[in-house]
Amino acid sequence: MKYALFTVSSPTMTLEELAPRLHEYGYEGWELRVVDEPPNPKGMEFWHGNKSTVPASTFKDEVPRLQKLAEDNHLELINLGTYVRSDSAWANIEQAFANAVAIGAPSLRINVPEYDGKSTLKPIWDTAFANFKRIEELAAQHNVKVLTEIHHGTICPSASSMRMFVGGLDPKHIGVIHDCGNMVHEGYENYRLGLEMLGEYLALVHVKNVTMYPFRISADSAVEWRHKWWPMHQGVASIRAVISTLMDIGYDGWISFEDFSTQQKFEDRAKFNIDFVKQIVEEERTKRTTPES
């Protein structure tokens, strides 16, 4: 396996500050956050005021700087983490492809539409699939793969729902990002079941973690539960089970870290996380190579 970091998870650092740290900690690649966002009056956070973000509208101007940073710090660009969806304006989708081509990215993220449970699913699903057929044509034309992420609050919150969606698309051009943290919010399934269902569509694995806590107890003693981003080794998702299952099915691609927890400062959690996962990989390999007594 190879290890990368999605720069959405490093909001306090510029890319110039981040790149040498990633190389120092043992990361081999990075996944760039690419989006235009307005200033955040509340200050800096993961999704607003993030210093490791590249604006989509001026991305092409940044390409020489980004390429030099990657080359100087031995980091492979594994994906452009854009924030366009299949229901975004078509001009924004075309711009995302143009940015990926400009920097030579192997893939870019385009997600499926959001879903709040208040609307009839079928028209949203059918329109999204029709849009992805058009997106598939662009992917083939530009030789850039499109990755769509399993994500809570969308029409594809689980591996099985995502497999149903991408089933009529060409896995040479359309792939899936598996995300165990998102599936704590919504869509958890047995990891092996989901990963085997994705099969040849599995293109990238995000790892992060989440906890659940009782938010409110009503007059009838019913408990309302909420989710909160949590350290990689302490949340509800079993990172060991995810990694072990990936090894069982022969996955040898990228693991991209996307930790939104805040109990540690970024530098500490970025180093801990990769060491934690590497230790799991080593222990699982030892299990598989040590003869049973």
Features:
alpha/beta; 293 residues; 11 strands; globular; two-stranded antiparallel sheet; 9-stranded parallel beta sheet; 21% strand; TIM Barrel
**Roughly what is the average pLDDT, rounded to an integer?**
96
Q: Which range best describes the helical content: under 10%, 10-25%, 25-40%, 40-55%, 55-70% or over 70%?
A: 25-40%
Secondary structural class: alpha/beta
- Percent of residues in β-strands: 15-25%
What distance separates the N and C termini? 29 Å
Pattern of helices and strands? EHEEHEHEHEHEHHEEEHEH
CATH topology: the name is TIM Barrel
Give me the Rg, rounded.
19 Å
Which parts are unreliable, with pLDDT below 50 for 5 consecutive residues or more?
A: none
The largest sheet is:
9 strands, parallel
Shape: globular
Strand segment tally: 11
- What is the CATH class name? Alpha Beta
Q: How many H/I helical runs?
A: 9
Indicate how many domains the architecture comprises: 1
Q: How does CATH name the architecture?
A: Alpha-Beta Barrel
Could you characterize the architecture of this molecule?
This protein is of the alpha/beta class and 293 residues long. It has a single domain (2-289), classed as TIM Barrel, CATH 3.20.20.150. 39% of the residues lie in helices and 21% in strands. It is built from nine helices and eleven strands. Strands 1, 2, 3, 4, 5, 6, 7, 8 and 11 form a nine-stranded parallel sheet that branches. The longest helix has 24 residues, at 266-289. The chain starts with a strand and ends with a helix.
